[in-house]
Structure formats: C-alpha cells, structure tokens
Write a structure and sequence with these properties.
alpha/beta, Rossmann fold, 9 strands
Length: 559
C-alpha cells in the first residue's frame, strides 16, 4: 500500500488518538486499583490494538508515528507526569516497529515486536531504579537474592534467574497480545461506527504570555547541568553534595513554587527514607563493609532520589510553560502538527463511545470496539487535515474584501508562514474604477487582469479579462501551492462558475492538496454555490456586510 506522507500521518493520528484513549481508560482503572504489573498490562493493550491496526492497515512507519502522536498528546496534556509515560510510549512503539521491520508484516514479525514492546516497561523500570538509586541497588538486589535462594534451598538458582522469570512472564504476555491483535485485525467486524464528530479544540494549547523561549531553553540547560554536576559529586562527597542539594531544593522552592507539592506527599517520602535506610543496612550486612559504609550508601541513595525528583520537576515546569509548549508546537512538522490537533479532537468522543472500564473485562471486545472506529476517524481526519480550513470572505462590492485579504497575507508572511495565491487590486483613472490588476504570491508579480477599455478577452459585465494572465498565473501557482501554509484567491466569481478564470486553481485545491488554510474572496450571490462545491463541512463564512473587517481578521487569525 503506497501512501503519501500526509496520508500516513492521518492514519497515524487515528491510531495515536485511539492509543491515547486506551491509556486514559485502562491506565486510570489499573492505577486506581493499584494492580501489580500495570505497565506491562498497559503495554499488553497497546500491542493488542496496534497490531490489530497494522494488520488492517499494512503501511510502513505507522507505529512509530502513532507513538509520536500519543507521546506528544501526553506532553501537551495537563498533568505533571510527563517524561516517564512519554519514554514508555515511544519505547513500546519503537520496539514494536523494530520487530515488524526485522521480520515483516506477518505473525512472526508481530510476535517479535510484541515481545519487545511488552518487555519495554520492565526494562524501563530497571533502568529508572538504577538511575535514581545508583549501582548500589544492583549490589543490594544481588546479595539479597542470594540470601533468599539459600534460605529456600534453591541452590541451582542465581539472582539473574529471578529477572529471567519476570521477563518470561512478559514474553508470554507479548505473544498473547501479538497473536490476539493479529487475529482481531484479520476479522471483519462489519460494524458501522458513526458518532457525532467534534471539531479540533485549539484551546488545548495555551496562549503566549510574552516570555522568551530562549530564556526557557537556557534555564532547562542550566538546571540540567546543575543536576548532572550534583549527581557526580554525590559519589565523591555525600556531605558537600548534601549541602549543595539542600541549596538547590531551596532555590527550586523559591523560584518554582509548584515543586512544593513534591514534599507534601509525606507517605511517599516515608517510604523512600525507609527503603534507602533498609538498603543501606542490607548493603552493610551483605557486603561486610561495616555500618558506616552502609549508612553512607543509604544517604547517597536518598540524596539521588531528592535531587532527581526535584531536578526533573524543575525541568518539566520549564518545558510545560505556555511559551515553551506553543514554541514546540510551532516548530513541529506541518503534517505532524495537523495530525496532533485532529487526534486531540477525537479523544473525548472515542472515550465516550467506548464502554469504559467495563470493556477491559473482555479485552477482545474492547480492541474490536477500537478497531471498528478506525475507518470512520480516518475519513474525518482526512477531510480536516487534507483540505484544511476554508474561509470565505464575502460582501457587496466595495465592502473591503480585497483589502482584508491583502492585510491577512502581510500578517501571515510576517509570522513566517508560506503564503501563495492571487490578490486583486482595483485600478482607477480620474477617480473612476477602470479595471483590476492581479498580484501573485509569493513572487509579488503584478499583471493587468481586466480593463473596461479593452476589446479582446473574456467579457464579463463591462470588463474584458485577459485569458493569458489567468493561464500564466494558474500555471505558476500550480507548483507554489504544494508547500504553502496559506493560500489566497481573490476573487471567485461568475467566471469560475463557468470553469474559467481561477477555476483550474480552485479545482486543484479541492482535489487533494493539504494546505492548512485557504482564504477565498467570493461574490455574495454565489457564496452558497462555492460552499457546496467544496463541501459545507469545515467552511467558515465572514460576511463583511454583517461583521467588520477587524472582526473578520481576528476570527481568521485566531482560528
């Protein structure tokens, strides 16, 4: 199946939004019940669905793109837990994609990828624990496991065998998820899923408040450098490191008041102090290095936990500032940005359309519900992403349509947007309108389009239009619109309804370009006809006989 990049991102946004919905439905349920192996069970549902999806849509590169969509949705959503879930989601996506790339779109590839993906949470937990508590934790685990094995008389076992048992559980879970997803995807349910479609909600993204993204980046780098430096210092001198960490915590509490909530969870810190103290004593007893060394080890582990918890919280606060979020969003690939916006719009409907946590009691039915949504959301996203927003500016002659389009084009260009299209400018002689010139964007080339005192060309009313200008402009714009963010057409009128004038251009816009925003100036008497031509969904009409040009400008710029 050979699909262009836009189509792949559309499909990935469908999968990413449904995946994010399973994270919300299953994740909240499992975490609230404090069920063990929640990460592995979440990965199980993810692999189950993703393999069912790629069995249905055999398109290369879908899974890692869906992972990016799902991970970014986590980043842009409210909440403090960001890095762990994002890393987990992307790890699962990349592991699954790797297995399929290695062995192909077949049961063997799905099983290989599924085993790797379901094992990713356990690997992530082990790595996280080593990062947070240091290598001493590995020594404590190894020695403690040897004692437990000796007590139970299992002399043939080694500490590594305990990890092997855990991984074996993950392997079995991965095989079940992979094969279940494969057979689910092969099955044609015939279900017709048609909920009410909700438009994208741009309010999910906060507004700029004036802070500099460069200063945020500098702050992130500075806090990262401090955290890394103190981590290194802990190994050399726990006393000096402890004093500096206390200073870093005080600084963080003063500058980032939200970090205070970290220390309000007294149960968490009681557990941490108890665990690190116990680990220190175990280290002293099991290694025979003495109580002083054990105490130092426990303090070192506690300092690492405090430093990394506060350090990650500070970095997260900086990255989640509205200025940072919006800056990151503006730098995203256009297809990715549009796909992400559509994915956000779908999640509430997907969640409300499912049977929620009751679906988890029957995983096969749950995944069947999710895969039955895919074609429906694909068609909806395709309309939204491929055609983008269409704005029709209308009003009586002299109402300011052309002036508004020119003003908008200048503002979009100032924002760094890629702008294409044609703008009209009235030509006057002795105070009387005698014709129009047309300006091509982005080249700025201006040519006479029509005059009253000509005798050749296509006549419309009292004007004679130069057909060669239409031909040259349509040909020039045919290439420039392919990479545009915004296109203007001024104006669409009776010539276009007769398949002349700018008709080749608007026909090209209708038949498959992926421009995010198109702004058309349209004669008032044919507005409904143009709406029907493009399809009424996703079209906004700004009537300058009803609202002012200033109101229309704000409406278009703010989406």
């Amino acid at each position: 199946m050979n699909k262009n990049k836009t189509d792949i991102w559309i499909r990935a946004s469908v999968m990413g939004s449904i995946w994010a919905s399973t994270e919300i439905i299953a994740g909240n349920f499992l975490h609230n019940l404090r069920i063990p192996f929640t990460g592995e069970l979440m990965a199980f549902f993810a692999v189950f669905f993703l393999i069912a999806a790629v069995t249905k849509w055999k398109v290369r590169g879908l899974i890692w793109r869906a992972g990016i969509i799902c991970a970014l949705m986590k980043f842009f959503s409210p909440g403090s837990a960001v890095f762990g879930p994002m890393i987990g989601i992307m790890s699962e996506a990349l592991m699954l994609e790797f297995g399929i790339a290695l062995l192909g779109h077949n049961p063997a590839g799905y099983v290989a990828g599924g085993i790797l993906a379901v094992s990713a949470p356990l690997i992530q937990k082990i790595v996280n624990l080593i990062i947070i508590y240091g290598w001493n934790l590995v020594i404590v685990f190894d020695k403690s496991a040897e004692v437990v094995i000796k007590i139970f008389g299992a002399s043939g076992l080694k500490p590594s065998h305990l990890l092997l048992i855990l991984f074996s559980f993950n392997i079995i879970l991965g095989i079940i998820a992979s094969l279940s997803g494969y057979f689910s995807g092969k099955k044609n349910t015939g279900r017709d899923f048609r909920p009410e479609f909700k438009q994208s909600d741009d309010t999910l993204y906060p507004d700029f408040s004036g802070a500099s993204p460069k200063m945020i980046a500098l702050s992130v780098l500075l806090n990262t450098a401090i955290t890394v430096f103190l981590l290194i210092l802990i190994k050399g001198n726990t006393v000096i490191a402890g004093a500096l960490i206390a200073g870093f915590v005080a600084y963080s509490l003063l500058r980032y008041r939200n970090t205070s909530r970290i220390f309000r969870n007294y149960k968490f810190w009681i557990q941490i102090v108890f665990f690190t103290s116990l680990s220190g004593l175990a280290f002293a007893y099991l290694t025979g290095l003495g109580l002083a060394k054990g105490l130092e080890t426990g303090i070192e582990m506690l300092e690492r936990v405090i430093l990394l918890t506060v350090g990650f919280a500070v970095i997260s606060i900086e990255l989640r500032k509205p200025e940072s979020v919006n800056y990151i969003r503006t730098k995203l690939n256009r297809n990715l940005s549009l796909a992400l916006n559509s994915a956000f719009s779908a999640v509430p409907e997907i969640i409300s359309s499912s049977r929620g946590i009751f679906s988890l009691m029957r995983p096969a039915v749950f995944i069947e519900e999710l895969t039955s949504m895919m074609d429906y959301w694909y068609e909806k996203f395709r309309v939204e992403i491929r055609n983008g927003r269409i704005i029709i500016v209308t009003g009586k002659q002299g109402s300011g349509k052309s002036t508004l389009l020119r003003t908008l084009s200048e503002k979009f260009i100032a924002e760094g947007k890629k702008v294409s299209g044609v703008l009209s400018t009235a030509v006057f002689e002795n105070g009387e309108r005698t014709g129009y010139d047309v300006t091509a964007l982005p080249s700025g080339k201006r040519m006479p389009l029509c005059r009253v005192n000509e005798s050749s060309g296509t006549r419309l009313g009292r004007y004679y239009f130069d057909d060669s200008v239409f031909e040259r402009m349509n040909e020039e714009l045919s290439d420039s619109i392919k990479s545009s963010d915004v296109i203007f057409v001024d104006e669409i009128g009776l010539l276009e309804t007769g398949k002349k004038g700018w008709y080749p251009l608007i026909e090209k816009l209708k038949s498959g370009t992926d421009i995010p925003l198109s702004v058309f100036s349209v004669r008032k008497d044919i507005t409904e006809e143009i709406k029907s031509y493009f399809g009424s969904e996703g079209i906004t009409v700004c009537d300058l006989d009803i609202i002012s040009a200033v109101e229309a400008e704000a409406k278009i710029l703010n989406g």
